[in-house]
Amino acid sequence: MEKDFSEFGKNKGGKFGLKGRCNVCLKEWRDENADRINSERRGRYANDPELRERVMLQGKKSYRLHSEKRKSEKRKYTKNNKDKISKLKREYYLKNRESLIEKSRIHYRENLNVYKINSLIYRESRRIELAERGVEYRLEIRNKYIENLKSKLSVIDCECDPMTLYVFKVCGAWKIGITSQSFKERYRMPTINKIESGYLFHMDEFHVKSIEKIILHETKEYLFDGKTPFLEGTGVTEMRTIDLIDIVQNFIEENKIIHIKEKI
Question: What's the whole-number mean pLDDT along residues 244-263?
Answer without folding.
Answer: 84
